[in-house]
Amino acid sequence: MKKINYSLCCMLSAFFLFTESKVQAQTDTIEHVAQGRKNDASQIKKPYVILISADGFRHDYAERYKADHLLALSQNGVQAQSMIPSYPSVTFPNHYTLLTGMYPSHHGLVNNSFLEEKTGEKYSMGAKTKVRDGKWYGGTPLWVLAEQQHMIAASMFWVGSEAEIKGLRPTYYYDYTEQIKVDKRISIVKNWLSLPEDKRPHLITFYLSEPDHAGHSFGPDAPQTEKAVKMVDSVIYELTKAIEPLNLPVNYVFVSDHGMTAVDREHPIATPKEIDTAKYIIASSGTMMDIHAKNKADIQPLYEVLKANEKDYKVYLKSNMPEHFHYSTTDDRMNRIGDILLVPEWPKVFSGRKPGAGYHGFDPSVVKDMHATFLAWGPAFKKQVKIPSFENVNVYPLVANILGLSYQEPIDGKLEVLKPILK
């Protein structure tokens, strides 16, 4: 009887777990709509911007892997030599920088995972409850800026779009899930742009998770990564082809959050034995180890020991991080950066096991493989323009200008950097 009950319990547990995951998957595919919102009459005739991000699309991928559609479209617009990500060059901080015009230390998402010392809470990009909690997000993302000025915005995925920030989310948005296939996402965007003009979004964000996954698993030089780049290229072609018959003044801005580089997989750096986890919390690792001391009196002793023994990585106090990182004590507006930071020298990474084939997160001023992509085309942009590399904080004022949105909050980006590419 006990065996039967045990088996029955296992079956029921499995059933409920399956049901729960299935319900979650179904929930994630539901469109969220804020009822009652309309474009103000003054916004209806404004242009449209689709801001597209292909995660991990390195600055040279389009030419290297012959992304013919992207190259052809942007040759009729603007191509940057590269776009320089903010430090650390990882996904969540840089996607949110693109949408706020602020360095990670200023908007608060200082890494993909980090500790908030004031509360002792940890944010992680894999924790849905944290990701959807607006308290973690500083700045005014573009969709909030638009909605504040009675311009409808929509998000087909983007960091922060699931959270209520300053009391607002995009009028239309989906929770991030791979359950919605790419052709369906394109159809959703087309449907948004086919709505009556008072309900039609003028700002749409559109996120693709490749070629980042391929780059991590196989490395930036692998045929699988080339295939992922070509897939992204095909998606952009299908998206533009679907929207073209609508005859709307749509401007496309194609970006990525960071690049990708091969690392030393055979000799990863182990966590230094001097770090006593009873005294210190390691909030992140990989291409930067972020260490918080539980007792601030323990900061200097550990720093001195680590500094005396540093090999294959640099040891910094938060107060003496290099200025170009914008990641020091004076930058850390929300006190979320560790007291001590260990920064590996490329191609080394911190890992307790054999690392993946591709990494990002390194200093983009030293490792150019970290540089991202910027391509743009549409009626707002000059044609056949090539520009030098620039920092990604400057995308925010560019998009705000195209949409005719004003902002008063101090940001790190400057319109004058990219204004010359506009007609």
Key structural traits:
423 residues; Gyrase A, domain 2; 2 domains; 9-stranded mixed β-sheet; 19 strands; 30% helix
Question: Which helices and strands occur, and which strands form pairs?
Answer:
Elements: H1 2-28, E1 32-33, E2 48-54, H2 61-64, H3 68-75, E3 78-80, E4 83-84, H4 91-100, H5 104-107, E5 113-116, E6 121-124, H6 128-131, H7 142-148, E7 153-156, E8 172-173, H8 182-193, E9 203-208, H9 212-218, H10 223-243, E10 250-255, E11 261-262, E12 280-284, E13 289-293, H11 299-308, E14 313-317, E15 340-344, E16 358-359, E17 374-377, E18 385-387, E19 390-391, H12 395-403, H13 415-418
Parallel strand pairs: 2-9, 2-10, 3-18, 4-19, 7-8, 7-9
Antiparallel strand pairs: 1-8, 3-17, 5-6, 10-17, 11-16, 12-13, 13-15, 14-15
Helix pairs in contact: 8-10, 9-10
